[in-house]
Write a structure and sequence with these properties.
- Helices cover 39% and strands 18% of the residues.
- Strands 1, 2, 3, 4, 5, 6, 7 and 8 form an eight-stranded mixed β-sheet that branches.
């Protein structure tokens, strides 16, 4: 095994390069370099499970967080963390710089995994603040104007999903919780613009234009976008939706090798900003 500092240093160099390519207008001074190093260290942190690390090649966490401009001292909100794939990285990142991490999800079932981790490994996860999202007014919430960054990974389709469209409300609440100038980072399964929009209802894929429209209606401005998480092998047209691909592999053994060869879904990576005024 290579020494930890070599792993972190190599990752830091990689994400500095990726961030520069993804957003040529971003500031890349000493502070940015320190942030990239901290992200690399969090990606290499020992609390991460081997199964999750194996999926880094699809999810590109270091490059993605660098693109969104996440810094260790930030107040970061992770929406609907689910199984906690990104939480494993964001928790040590927040702790390393005295930042605050919120896990915000349906109360309380959407936070059960995080609460289990807090009990089992309080040193890493104990500082995570729990909040309801979308918030209905009775349970803890992320205070308005308090967050530097809000992150959502493959969740917008869940707000759009199943006949009741809660997407507009979700984006409005995200806008409220961010500070002026704060960032919303969205990674979502991408439905090509030329495909039937009705597929958004059940496929798990969303059109870029739909996500941008929801964000802009809430007041956000699209600041940058990247193909960090693109997958040109994805054909987007599976009978059982995006869940046909890994990690779910809903078809079971049917065409399993074919879907493993495709890999995880084609994803858009969009960086929105709440205007400063």
């Amino acid at each position: 095994m290579r020494p930890f500092f070599l792993v972190a240093s190599a990752a830091a160099l990689t994400i500095c390069s990726a961030a520069a390519q993804a957003d040529p207008h971003a500031h890349h001074g000493a502070d940015a370099h320190k942030a990239h190093q901290a992200i690399a260290a969090a990606v290499a942190a020992p609390n991460r499970t081997a199964a999750n690390v194996a999926r880094d090649k699809y999810r590109n966490p270091a490059e993605t967080l660098a693109f969104f401009g996440v810094k260790p001292g930030d107040t970061v909100v992770e929406l609907w963390p689910g199984g906690g794939w990104y939480t494993e990285i964001l928790a040590p990142l927040a702790k390393s710089g005295g930042g605050t991490l919120y896990a915000a999800a349906p109360w309380e079932r959407g936070l059960n995994r995080i609460k289990e981790w807090q009990g089992a490994n309080a040193d890493v996860y104990g500082g995570i603040q729990l909040a309801e999202f979308p918030n209905a007014g009775t349970n803890p919430k992320v205070a308005d104007g308090s967050a530097d960054v809000v992150l959502t990974f493959r969740n917008v389709h869940n707000w759009r999903f199943g006949g009741a469209d809660n997407t507009a409300n979700a984006f409005q609440q995200i806008f409220a919780m961010l500070k002026p100038g704060g960032v919303l980072g969205v990674v979502e399964h991408r439905l090509p613009e030329g495909m039937d929009s009705a597929m958004e209802e059940k496929s798990g894929y969303m059109k870029r234009s739909s996500v941008v429209a929801f964000a802009e209606a809430a007041g956000f401005k699209l600041a940058a976008e990247s193909d960090i998480n693109a997958n040109p092998r994805d054909t987007h047209d599976y009978e059982k939706g995006v869940w046909t691909l890994p990690p779910v592999l809903r078809e079971g053994d049917k065409d399993r090798e074919k879907y493993l060869a495709i890999g995880e879904s084609d994803r858009m990576t969009l960086k929105f900003v709440k205007p400063a005024s």
